[in-house]
Amino acid sequence: MTPSARTQAAIELLDQIIAAARDSGGAADTLIARYFATRRYAGSKDRRAVRDLVYAAIRAVGERPPSGRSAMLALAASDGEVAATFDGVGHGPAPIGKKEVTAANGIAPRWIIDRLYGSDLDDAECAALIDRAPLDVRINRAIDEVIEIEGAEPIPGLADGLRLPTGTNVENLPAFNHGAIEVQDAGSQIVTLAARAQPGQRIVDLCAGAGGKTLALAAVMRGEGVVLATDTDRNRLSRLAPRAERARAGIIESRLINPGRELEMLDDWIGSADCVLIDAPCSGTGTWRRNPEARWRLTPDRIERLVETQRKVLEVGAALVKPGGALVYIVCSLLDEEGAGQVATLLAANPGWRAQALDLPAGRRHGPGTRLTPAHDATDGFFVARLHHA
Known about the structure:
alpha/beta; 4-stranded antiparallel sheet; 13 strands; globular
């Protein structure tokens, strides 16, 4: 592919990504994979170059743009090499017109920025939310294997954390195929430590998804006890079983639950869990480095619905904790209404619970918990609180 053809391919992909963001369609990564699955002529260098163009344009534009071309024009405004590819030659995009609509540069829609400011983030913190994320992995100590990955560096404060060079193809590494490492952001590893998992405990990962934190909990428990992974999404939860098998995590059980019937379907766990970990559904403002198009999907109504879901999930989780146990609440959001505010509301309504101080290798105290940010901690953004049940 010529440089111009690569730019045109990026424009076509951006059109799909913009439509998906508007209509709650597939994620950018999924759309990119589908696009190239039907274009076998594109080599690995072409695919990488187009992908880089797409994500550079997404990061450059804060508001959802009207078209892929307008987003690419925003990138071209500050990149002469990209601008030169608008030549109309072959499969390249048409030359830039004098009155064309160019998408506005920015970090995020104004209303979201205002809410981030209201949650005590400044300009530098907000700007870091759309930086490129590093590639982190967690070493699985259940697999007795020496980990040798060229260019890997230890992550301060995480004995099992490694940061790999950008572009590393993890799935081609022997350590990954043997189950000796799992891809997991350093921030995700750090907030999971708030569970203080111990061998022999009974732990519920209430919104387990594909089980990244479930696997981390099981690794710490060294094959003793049980981790129950639950979710309402069958597709996401189904991805846990092969991951658990590869990681040799035999203490993991999974249970698909129906929305609105959580306690009914978890009645055998009510009041008996040593710890319930809730990685709650949220806006994902802390993960924009990995999913920058997520900024284009959010609306005030969507956040309002998420806040209500979080409140309900907290009620379910609290009912499962035994006296003397703990509830760990995590969101990959930096909006206080989803993090510190949710925990404060629960504590005010339930005097039998209290927030416990956290001693984590990163983050800063924020309200009743701890907050990690890309700018301060070089991790995804998280809020985490540990609540003790008297």
